[in-house]
Every structure is written in structure tokens, then in C-alpha cells.
């Protein structure tokens, strides 16, 4: 069969798509042949077969294994196609190929390793118990070749990452770690193999982290034993000097010098990463060694500066390289890792206390001749622009801006150096800035210092000052004036990067210098404006555009108004000279332009009525309509402008509409014509914003101008990003000016507005529109019902409500469910009895409409979001309860979650097999439960149950590795040292009964979550207290009270007692 497979494998690599597809289909047809996987394994093992075909065979085999080996694999297709005997043979062949079989092709061994890992994830340990002993035997064998050792370590790394349960890990942990330690410390082995052994050891901490909570004592004992041996090894490895660096010519080759260089760097890197991992999982265990680690790292970073500069600042060596196993092996990676570790260690209490003591002892020289000066000097040294960055940024300003705005994922020694100084600033406050002043005085006075050094110093200062501004940390006037001299020097230099950095740092200084810098800020703003138009460097131009965002708020208000038109003109000229529609890898320039234009307009939003500002903003947005960040900036800016202008009255808002509506409607037409969905979506959202923030009544002709386009969009589109804003726009038209709206008639069909809206709602409630798209239809339906009333709607009203109830019965998305429920909630506020009467006679798939709607309503009430929506819901539920309708009392709904405390986090597969179960309660009791919850939320001081309090960090424990040295005697109130406790107070324990919604609400600031962060609402609180006073006096309430949980009863009693 091998001969049949070889041409097919070759065809899978054909540049012709049809040939590839045909070969892939033929290979799929061979899946059922028992010889198929055996033949692929045999091809992969043959040295005589070309490497590309061996790799192809392993790739096909791996795909086959995923699909047909075991039901436990995620990609399993439903039928096991390998018998046990063949499985045994395949496992043996692949493991030998990945480890002991000698081959010159590491790519083949790596591919075999991936296949072994895939099988192991299904079979280990039950069907493949000999796998781990086999690997450990190879690794422990002193005679094992480097190739076999490498293959065994690679398989073991994958196995540790994916294959161990808790019990399995504890059974083999000591043997495993001892084996890895033996390799890591064996100086006769290649450094890169020792690095791989350390990487496997580091991977063990992921498993230890998972079992830490359940096995604290055992884990602590194990780690104490382990680190007693590994710590001296870490220290000696980090202390060891780097070997001879390879020359440019040698580096690209596989000789002894470059191999040793890369190997030692890889080993040091893995040690540094492992120390960082231990610090994350067991911080107390390295606290005592933190001063030693700090000194060693500082010393090494000081010693390798010259090599780093030769490689990357003065030279153009290739950086950011990894070996075939994904291990970083270049000097820039080592510098980055050690700088990162240094900024972590500097917060360790023993290190911090010693450094604080040295500063105090230094007295007046603390900022001129202490460790602070040396650390700042080190940070500046590594913050210099590399040759590679210089070339890239000069070609593409987007890359420069992405670093400047910290949106890049490219973490480098430069950015890490900035973070190191920011950490010092968080601790030492303005002392760090004073240290920078002292250091820069010497640097700028030294005529031999390069522009890169000076730019780096300004970059570090820029990072420090921007962090100060984020926490409103201002600096004294004398310090600001001292730092300003370096900025003045920079903006006059001929080097583009230094000039650009000068302007950017001026903006950062303006934000933290207060009123004393206002005149200087005005001067820099005028200089920046001039540079945007006249500077020959585009890098300087975009830097000046960016810094306007910092300078505009810092300039005296008497000056900025007169400059507003000048700024808009400068931005207009820049945009006219650049094709913003030209494809780029990122849109950072467009984002910067939009943000600067937004800030300029908001100085006095009326400027949009008499300038091209709004046209510029729309032009920027349309050129990058697919960029979410850009669209969000423009949309939010437009909302603010509309709201501000609407406050000036009807004339101003009408002029705005006259100015923007042609552009918006034209964009809708162009987007439809060119199939640019993103442009159409943007235009629809801008139209939504214009209607939402508008005035009552709307300008004459507004509805006539936009409804035909909105109607077409809502009846034709399936795009959720378009349907949502278009639906909202129609609702706001209806809400703001019902008379103008109801008078509109569709010019194409002749249908009136009421009929058109009903058709739109019917379509959005239908099965062809997804929940995510129809999420606003409930609000539109509710608005229509309220505004039009039963008189106008006539027989359409019950049809509309039945359609809402029908869609509610199948709705899954929380926001969509809320939208539909609010239709009935708002009607309940008008006439609760009519709502109950109507739902009781509706049949939804054999179930009572009342039962379906109340079930969904009460199950989802606690997840409602939005102040008005929550309030409407509370009032409606109270009215339903007070109605005391027996039909409502007969409805049974989902009650409380039945807690199944297994002590383990429930996985997705476990959740599918054992879904959450709930009690069943009557609808009135559920209403009381919901309103008790809302009463607590309305106070703004909602009591937290024990589990939620613990999840928010209300409890602490630090049993593992606690050290007496962890105490921090600083008086600065800095809480960073808490990160050196093993269970920081901010840890969220996911094994507690906290829902995903609660976690999300907490992460978003929690406007209406159960974390007690909702704003106090006295009106709602008073209503609910009055409701419960009245309800408690009614017959049957004591039975309701008895049905509440203990915490609910306590909450009601407590709130009643203090009200």
C-alpha cells in the first residue's frame, strides 16, 4: 500500500488546488483500510523516502488519528477505524521515530512527536501505560544519543502539558522532576537540551497550580524538596557568563560557537522563565532568594549591554528567534526576560526594603548617585531604538504609533525598560522623576552621547510621566521646568526620531505639570501645528498629530478656541496629502487622526456646523470602516457632538442634520452598491446616534429622508451589525416624533408607517433572523405599542404580542430575551390584568403562553441590565404579584440552583452530562425572590453572600510557602507586595458558586451585577420597601416568606430593620 500512498502524498503538496483536493479525497476514502495508518507510519520511518513525503505521511496520519482513533479526541468523527493490535504497533513505531531512531531530519522527529502526543492524549495512561516509563528510561540513559534525548524530552513536554491527571502526576512527580533535574544539571549535555529539560520542569507548574487548592500541604512539602536542589542550579546558571559571541558570518551557521551561544542563552532564558513561573504560583517560596536573584540579574544585564548594543543598536542582527521546539535562543529574548524578571523582583519585600534603606542612607545623593541612578541608566541603555525598529518605523508610521499607544503585542526590551521605570515610579513617585532629571542632566551635557541614547531617555521619561497622569500624580514646577529643557533641545534637533520624541514627551509633561506648564504647552501646540504642515519627516508629523491630544486640554482656554480652526485645517491638509484608503497592516494612523480630530471638535462642538470637521471625521471612518476601534471612536465622538449641539436648541440640531444626513444616506447607498458591509453598518450606526440624541420633535422631513433606506435595510439584511442599529434608529424616530413618523408613507409600496413597522417587526421576530441580530426588536415593539395604542393597532396588537411570545419561547441570547420581556413588562405597567388574560389564552406549541412567558421572564430578571429597564421590570413584577391572579399562582418556574458540591471545577463535558438542576417554585414566590434581590441591589450596599465575598477577595489564605520576610515595612501604602503572597486577596476562585454573568459584570465595572456595585437608587428602594410592607400584611405572605432561602429571609429582615 506504501506505493499507492506515495504519489497521493506528493499530490497533497501540489501547487495546483484541484490536484491537492483530489489527493486529499482519495486519502479520505482509504481511511477504512486497516493497512492505511500502518503504511503511513512505515513511510514516515523510511530514511530513503524524501523528507517532504515523510512529513506529509505524518501529517496525514495525525489527521487520521484525530478523526478515527478514539471518541475522547475532540476531532473524532464517530467511528474507531484502528484495531487494538494495529494501535500497539503504530504507537511503538511513532515513539521510536520520535526518540531512539536516528535521523538527520529533526522536522520528521518533531512531526512524529506531535503524532505521539495526539495518541497519548487519548490513550495515556490506561491504554498506553508503558509510555512514561519508556520516556524516562531514554532520558535517564547516559548512553542515549542527543537525538533520542531530545525526542523523549519533546514528547514528555507535550505529555506534561496535556496528559496527566492529578493522581497520575503525584504518583510520578518525584521521579519525573528528579529525571529532569539530572538532565538540566548535566554539563556534558548540550545546553539547548538542558534548556528543554528546564522547560518541561516549568510546565509541571501548570499541573501543580491546578491541584494547589485541594492539596496544599502535599504541594508545599513537594516544592520545598524540589527547590532545595533546583535553586542552587538556577543561581549558578544565571551567574555563569555568556560564551564567546558568534560573528555575523558565524551566527547563521551550525558551528560550535553559535550552537553554544544559542544553547546557553536558551538555558538562561528557561531558568529565568521558571523563576517567574514559581513567583506566579508560589511567590513565598522564592522570597528569601529574591535579593540574590535581583543582584544576579542586574549584574548580568549590566555585563551584556555592550553585546546587546553591538548586535541590535549599532548592528542589525536577527532577533526574536526560536529553535524548532519553540525555545527562544537570541540575546534580545534573554534581555527581555531578565528585564521582566527584574521589574518583578524589585517589588519583593526583601529587595524593596534593602533598596529603600540604601536610598535613605544616601540622603541628598539619592537621586544623583545611588542604585536608582544606575537602574535608570540601565533602563535607558536597553530602551534605545534598535536598527530594525529604526528601519521599520521610518517606513511605516503605523508601527511607530502602535508602540506609542501601547496597542502592539510586540513586547521588547525597549517597552519592558519603560515598564521597569514605571514600577519605580509607582513606588517612589516623583523621586523617580527627580532621578531621571539628574541622569539626563549628565547625559545631555555629554556631547559624545548619541541621539539614540537621548531619545531613549526621553522615551523612558515619557512612559513615566504618562503613568503619573493616569493616577493624577502631578510633579512640582521646578521639576517640570528642569525636564522641559531636554524637550526644548530635542524638538530642535535634526534627527527625526529625537524630534518626534521631544514633541511626544512635551505632551506627557503637560499632563502632569498643571497650570505652571500652560504657556509652554501653548508654545508646543503651535510648534506641533507648524510641524504637521512643514516638517519633512512623516514620523514627526504623526507624532505631532498624536501629541495634540495631550496639549489641547493643557493649553489656556482663551488660546485653544482661536486655534481650533487652525488644527482642523492642519489635519485636513495632512489627510489630503495621504491616501487613507491605501491598504495597510494596521490602522493606527487613522485611529490617531480620529482621536485628535474628536478632541479638537469637542473644544467647541459648534465648529462642525461651520467647518469641514465632521466631513473629515466621516472620511477617516469610511476609509477604515472594518476597524472596530476606529468605528467605535468615531461613533462615540459623533454621539457626543450630537448631544452637545442638541442642547443649543432646534435650529442648531436642524443645521447639523442638514449637514450630515446627505453624507450618511449616501454612505448607505455606496455601501450597498459596492457590497462594503462595514461602511453600511457604520452609516446605520451614525444614523442611530443622530436619531437617539436628537430633539423632540425632529426636524421636518427627517423621517421622509431616512425611513425608506432603513426599511430596505431591515427587510433585506441578515447582518446583525446592521440590523441592530437600524432597528434602534426606527425606534428613536418613533419615540422622538410619533406624529411625523405616523404620517410617513413608503413611496415604493404606498404602505403607511404603521404597517411598515409591523412588517419589519414580523420579519425580525421570524426564524430567519438570529437572536443576536433581532436583539432590539422588543424595544421597538414596546415603543410602537405604547405610542400607537390599541386603537391604532386594532387586530394587529394580539398578533404582534403572540409573535413576541413565540420568539421569546425559543430565544437564547440574554439581551434579546430582556428586549422581548420588556414588551410585556411595559404593557403590564399599563394593564397587568389584560396581559395575563391575553397570555393565558395563547397557545405556544401546546403550552400556555402565560407559563412560557413567566418562566422566561422570572428566570432572566436577575440578569437585566440598564437603569430604566431594571426599574420597569421591578414595577411590572410588583404589579403582577399584587394582581393575585390564581392563574399566575399556578405557574411553576425555575427556583434556586441545587448545589452539588463535588469540590471540583465543573468542565464543559461534565456540565453536558450533568446539567445544573433547580428547584421548582410558584411564580409569585419567584417574584418575591427576584424583588428581594433587587431591594438589596437598590440600596447600593447589597450584602454579599460568603461565596461571592470570597470570590471578590474577601478572604485570604497564604499557607503555601509563607515566609517571615514577606512583611513590608514601607509607609507608602503600596499594595504591590501583596503579589508576593501565595493567595492574593484579588484572586477569584472559580470553584465557588459565581456565575459567568457575575464575573463578566464584575470585569466590566458591574453596573447591574450582584457584586454590590450598582448605584444606590432611593426611588426604587422606597418603592420596594413599600411593596414588602404592603405584601407582608396580606394573607398568605408568611407562606411566601417561608419559601425563601435563609439568606433571602435574612436580607429581607435586615433591610426592613434598617429602613
UniProtKB/TrEMBL annotation:
Domain annotation Importin N-terminal: ranges: 23-100
GO cellular component: cytosol; nuclear envelope
Annotated compartments: Nucleus envelope
Keywords, ordered alphabetically: Nucleus, Protein transport, Transport
Stretches the record annotates as Disordered: 949-989
GO MF: small GTPase binding
SMART domains for the chain: IBN_N (SM00913)
Highest rank taxon of the organism: Eukaryota
Keyword Nucleus appears in the UniProt entry: yes
A family per Pfam: HEAT_IPO9_c
ARM repeats, residue ranges: 705-733
GO BP term, pick one: protein import into nucleus
Residue ranges, compositional bias (Acidic residues): 960-982
Similarity comment: family membership: Belongs to the importin beta family. Importin beta-1 subfamily.
PANTHER family per UniProt: IMPORTIN-7, 8, 11, IMPORTIN-9
Protein name per the record: Importin N-terminal domain-containing protein
Organism: Penicilliopsis zonata CBS 506.65
UniProt lineage: Eukaryota, Fungi, Dikarya, Ascomycota, Pezizomycotina
Amino acid at each position: 500500500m506504501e506505493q499507492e500512498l506515495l504519489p497521493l502524498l506528493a499530490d497533497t503538496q501540489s501547487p495546483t488546488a484541484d490536484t491537492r483536493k483530489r489527493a486529499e479525497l482519495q486519502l479520505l476514502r482509504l481511511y477504512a483500510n486497516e493497512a492505511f495508518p500502518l503504511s503511513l507510519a512505515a513511510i514516515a520511518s523510511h530514511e530513503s523516502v524524501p523528507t517532504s513525503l515523510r512529513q506529509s505521511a505524518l501529517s496525514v496520519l495525525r489527521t487520521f488519528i484525530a478523526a478515527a482513533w478514539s471518541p475522547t479526541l475532540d476531532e473524532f468523527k464517530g467511528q474507531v477505524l484502528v484495531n487494538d493490535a494495529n494501535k500497539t504497533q503504530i504507537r511503538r513505531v511513532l515513539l521510536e521515530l520520535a526518540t531512539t531512531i536516528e535521523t538527520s531530519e529533526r522536522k520528521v522527529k518533531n512531526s512524529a512527536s506531535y503524532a505521539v502526543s495526539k495518541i497519548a492524549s487519548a490513550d495515556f495512561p490506561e491504554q498506553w501505560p508503558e509510555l512514561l516509563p519508556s520516556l524516562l528510561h531514554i532520558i535517564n540513559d547516559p548512553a542515549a544519543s542527543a537525538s533520542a534525548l531530545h525526542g523523549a524530552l519533546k514528547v514528555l513536554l507535550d505529555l506534561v502539558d496535556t496528559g496527566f491527571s492529578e493522581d497520575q502526576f503525584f504518583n510520578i512527580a518525584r521521579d519525573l522532576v528528579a529525571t529532569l533535574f539530572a538532565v538540566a544539571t548535566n554539563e556534558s549535555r548540550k545546553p539547548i537540551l538542558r534548556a528543554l529539560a528546564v522547560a518541561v520542569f516549568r510546565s509541571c507548574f501548570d499541573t501543580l497550580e491546578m491541584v494547589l487548592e485541594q492539596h496544599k500541604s502535599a504541594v508545599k512539602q513537594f516544592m520545598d524538596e524540589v527547590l532545595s536542589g533546583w535553586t542552587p542550579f538556577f543561581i549558578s546558571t544565571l551567574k555563569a557568563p555568556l560564551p564567546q559571541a558568534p560573528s555575523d558570518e558565524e551566527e547563521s551557521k551550525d558551528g560550535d560557537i553559535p550552537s553554544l551561544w544559542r544553547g546557553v542563552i536558551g538555558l538562561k532564558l528557561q531558568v529565568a522563565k521558571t523563576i517567574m513561573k514559581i513567583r506566579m504560583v508560589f511567590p513565598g517560596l522564592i522570597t528569601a532568594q529574591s535579593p540574590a536573584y535581583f543582584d544576579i540579574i542586574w549584574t548580568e544585564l549590566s555585563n551584556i549591554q555592550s553585546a546587546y548594543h553591538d548586535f541590535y543598536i549599532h548592528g542589525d542582527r536577527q532577533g526574536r528567534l526560536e529553535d524548532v521546539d519553540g525555545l527562544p535562543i537570541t540575546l534580545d529574548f534573554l534581555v527581555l526576560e531578565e528585564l521582566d524578571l527584574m521589574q518583578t523582583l524589585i517589588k519583593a519585600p526583601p529587595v524593596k526594603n534593602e533598596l529603600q534603606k540604601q536610598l535613605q542612607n544616601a540622603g541628598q545623593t539619592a537621586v544623583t548617585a545611588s542604585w536608582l541612578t544606575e537602574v535608570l541608566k540601565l533602563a535607558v541603555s536597553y530602551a534605545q531604538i534598535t536598527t530594525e525598529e529604526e528601519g521599520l518605523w521610518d517606513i511605516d508610521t503605523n508601527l511607530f504609533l502602535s508602540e506609542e499607544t501601547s496597542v502592539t503585542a510586540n513586547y521588547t526590551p525597549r517597552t519592558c525598560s519603560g515598564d521597569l521605570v514605571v514600577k519605580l515610579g509607582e513606588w517612589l513617585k516623583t523621586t523617580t522623576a527627580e532621578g531621571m532629571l539628574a541622569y539626563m542632566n549628565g547625559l545631555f551635557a555629554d556631547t559624545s552621547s548619541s541621539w539614540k541614547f537621548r531619545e531613549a531617555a526621553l522615551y523612558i521619561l515619557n512612559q513615566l510621566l504618562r503613568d503619573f497622569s493616569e493616577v493624577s500624580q502631578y510633579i512640582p514646577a521646578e521639576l517640570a521646568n528642569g525636564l522641559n529643557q531636554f524637550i526644548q533641545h530635542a524638538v530642535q534637533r535634526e534627527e527625526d526620531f529625537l524630534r518626534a520624541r521631544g514633541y511626544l514627551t512635551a505632551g506627557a509633561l503637560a499632563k502632569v505639570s498643571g497650570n505652571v506648564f500652560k504657556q509652554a504647552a501653548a508654545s508646543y501646540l503651535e510648534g506641533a501645528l507648524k510641524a504637521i504642515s512643514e516638517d519633512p519627516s512623516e514620523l514627526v508629523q504623526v507624532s505631532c498629530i498624536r501629541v495634540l491630544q495631550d496639549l489641547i486640554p493643557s493649553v489656556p482656554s482663551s488660546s485653544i478656541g482661536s486655534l481650533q480652526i487652525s488644527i482642523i485645517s492642519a489635519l485636513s491638509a495632512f489627510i489630503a496629502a495621504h491616501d487613507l484608503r491605501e491598504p495597510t497592516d494596521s490602522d493606527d494612523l487613522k485611529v490617531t487622526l480620529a482621536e485628535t480630530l474628536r478632541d479638537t471638535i469637542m473644544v467647541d462642538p459648534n465648529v462642525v456646523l461651520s467647518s469641514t470637521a465632521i466631513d473629515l471625521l466621516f472620511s477617516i471612518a469610511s476609509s477604515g470602516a472594518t476597524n472596530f476601534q476606529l468605528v467605535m471612536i468615531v461613533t462615540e465622538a459623533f454621539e457626543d457632538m450630537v448631544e452637545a449641539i442638541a442642547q443649543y436648541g432646534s435650529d442648531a440640531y436642524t443645521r447639523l442634520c442638514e449637514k450630515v444626513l446627505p453624507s450618511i444616506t449616501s454612505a448607505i447607498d455606496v455601501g450597498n452598491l459596492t457590497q462594503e458591509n462595514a461602511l453600511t453598518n457604520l452609516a446605520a450606526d451614525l444614523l442611530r446616534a443622530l436619531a437617539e440624541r436628537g430633539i423632540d420633535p425632529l426636524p421636518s422631513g427627517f423621517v421622509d429622508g431616512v425611513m425608506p433606506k432603513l426599511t430596505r435595510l431591515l427587510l433585506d439584511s441578515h447582518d446583525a451589525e446592521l440590523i441592530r442599529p437600524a432597528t434602534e434608529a426606527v425606534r428613536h424616530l418613533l419615540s422622538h416624533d410619533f406624529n411625523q413618523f405616523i404620517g410617513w408613507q413608503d413611496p415604493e409600496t404606498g404602505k403607511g408607517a404603521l404597517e411598515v413597522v409591523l412588517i419589519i417587526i414580523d420579519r425580525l421576530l421570524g426564524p430567519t433572523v438570529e437572536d443576536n441580530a433581532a436583539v432590539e426588536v422588543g424595544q421597538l415593539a414596546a415603543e410602537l405599542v405604547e405610542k400607537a395604542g390599541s386603537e391604532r393597532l386594532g387586530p394587529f396588537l394580539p398578533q404582534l404580542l403572540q409573535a413576541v411570545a413565540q420568539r421569546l419561547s425559543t430565544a437564547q441570547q440574554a439581551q434579546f430575551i430582556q428586549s422581548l420581556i420588556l414588551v410585556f413588562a411595559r404593557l403590564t405597567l399599563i394593564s397587568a390584568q389584560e396581559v395575563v388574560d391575553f397570555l393565558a389564552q395563547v397557545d405556544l406549541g401546546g403550552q400556555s403562553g402565560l407559563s412560557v412567558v413567566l418562566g422566561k421572564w422570572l428566570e432572566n430578571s436577575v440578569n437585566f441590565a440598564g437603569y430604566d429597564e431594571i426599574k420597569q421590570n421591578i414595577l411590572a413584577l410588583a404589579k403582577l404579584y399584587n394582581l393575585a391572579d390564581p392563574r399566575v399562582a399556578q405557574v411553576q418556574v425555575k427556583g434556586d440552583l441545587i448545589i452539588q458540591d463535588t469540590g471540583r471545577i465543573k468542565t464543559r463535558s461534565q456540565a453536558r452530562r450533568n446539567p445544573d438542576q433547580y428547584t421548582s417554585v410558584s411564580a409569585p414566590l419567584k417574584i418575591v425572590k427576584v424583588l428581594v434581590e433587587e431591594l438589596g441591589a437598590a440600596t447600593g450596599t447589597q450584602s454579599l453572600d460568603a461565596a461571592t465575598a470570597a470570590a471578590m477577595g474577601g478572604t485570604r489564605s497564604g499557607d503555601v510557602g509563607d515566609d517571615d520576610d514577606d512583611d513590608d515595612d514601607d509607609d507608602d501604602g503600596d499594595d504591590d507586595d501583596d503579589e508576593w503572597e501565595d493567595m492574593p486577596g484579588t484572586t477569584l476562585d472559580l470553584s465557588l458558586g459565581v456565575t459567568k454573568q457575575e464575573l463578566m459584570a464584575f470585569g466590566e465595572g458591574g453596573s447591574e451585577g450582584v457584586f454590590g456595585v450598582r448605584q444606590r437608587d432611593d426611588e426604587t428602594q422606597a418603592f420596594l420597601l413599600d411593596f414588602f410592607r404592603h405584601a407582608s400584611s396580606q394573607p398568605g405572605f408568611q407562606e411566601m416568606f417561608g419559601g425563601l432561602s435563609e439568606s433571602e429571609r435574612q436580607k429581607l429582615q435586615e433591610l426592613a430593620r434598617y429602613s
